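Propose amino acids for all 339 sites.
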């Protein structure tokens, strides 16, 4: 079994913590008339919250959601809408295999502290590596690749896949609890929780500071001036290795966007908080019908993956998946609201 705990024993604590400045314990004082007032002495109260390790600050702004998509290859039902977004922090990379198994080590070592039990962890949180064979059996004549993906240290910097929406949420929840336990132990106030991004936040961050970028790097080209692909995706039918990687690539293998975010296009698609609806503002995948009488809940996924064409990598394109299904091409990253 891949002993992530030995290699990454201190990974998650570092990822979870803030570099906060100390502050006066007398945040609230009582004046001579018995009124409770705030401490106005800036020399006694100095507070600044820095970006969590591995995250970047995405500033607030307004953008055209659904904008920048190549109109010649989408159905006429595609719509756009102006959206305003508040500031938030976002993981600069997709959550990796190493990070996810550090999380599993933590919850397995003390499941009760996180409101979990071993049976739930094994049943709901362990990556489903059978998804490689199930989704692309014609590419994997045996299931050894799926087994290696989580057991071989060489895959530690690849994005975790085979994760359901629920498992991604649990990672964010435990990450929040773990970090805030530390902050409180140091006499610091707890920080906002980690969570999955909304589709609006995700797309705004993916555009990298432009109001309507076609791709995270701008566009419309998918290669740089030297002819190198700018993301990990399928260039033509059956050609999965044009990017230099047959399946997933290590995070940071391709240049970041304007906000310093990696793989906002390609590599793996990413879970978002939003419930997908056929009547939502995104209609560009309406050829995939959903029976609205079905009790299945579909969640928005964004970014395209190693198995998709360039069309799916466009920032304004939206896809969806059953929230209870794990895929070998869907991962996630976390965000945190900025105060």
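Proposal:
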């Amino acid at each position: 079994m891949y002993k992530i705990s030995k290699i990454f024993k201190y990974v998650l604590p570092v990822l979870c913590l803030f570099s906060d400045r100390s502050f006066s314990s007398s945040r609230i004082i009582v004046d001579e008339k018995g009124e409770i007032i705030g401490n106005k002495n800036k020399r006694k109260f100095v507070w600044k919250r820095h970006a969590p390790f591995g995250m970047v600050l995405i500033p607030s702004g307004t953008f055209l959601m659904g904008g920048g998509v190549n109109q010649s290859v989408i159905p006429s039902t595609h719509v756009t809408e102006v959206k305003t977004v508040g500031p938030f922090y976002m993981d600069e990379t997709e959550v990796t295999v190493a990070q996810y198994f550090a999380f599993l080590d933590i919850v397995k070592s003390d499941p009760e502290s996180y409101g979990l039990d071993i049976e739930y962890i094994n049943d709901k949180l362990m990556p489903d590596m059978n998804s490689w064979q199930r989704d692309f059996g014609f590419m994997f004549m045996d299931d050894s690749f799926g087994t290696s993906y989580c057991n071989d240290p060489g895959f530690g910097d690849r994005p975790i896949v085979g994760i359901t929406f629920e498992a991604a949420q649990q990672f964010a929840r435990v990450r929040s609890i773990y970090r805030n336990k530390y902050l409180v132990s140091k006499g610091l106030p707890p920080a906002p929780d980690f969570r999955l991004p909304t589709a609006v936040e995700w797309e705004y961050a993916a555009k990298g500071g432009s109001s309507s970028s076609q791709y995270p790097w701008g566009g419309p080209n998918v290669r740089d001036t030297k002819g190198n692909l700018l993301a990990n995706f399928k260039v033509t039918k059956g050609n999965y290795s044009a990017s230099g990687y047959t399946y997933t690539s290590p995070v940071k293998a391709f240049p970041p966007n304007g906000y310093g975010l990696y793989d906002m296009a390609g590599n793996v698609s990413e879970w978002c908080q939003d419930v997908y609806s056929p009547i939502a503002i995104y209609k560009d995948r309406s050829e995939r019908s959903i029976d609205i009488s079905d009790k299945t809940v579909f969640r928005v996924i964004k970014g395209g993956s190693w198995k998709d064409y360039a069309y799916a990598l466009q920032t304004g394109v939206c896809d969806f998946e059953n929230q209870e299904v794990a895929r070998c091409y869907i991962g996630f990253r976390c965000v945190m609201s900025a105060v």
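The first strand starts at residue 28 and ends at 30. The mean pLDDT is 83.
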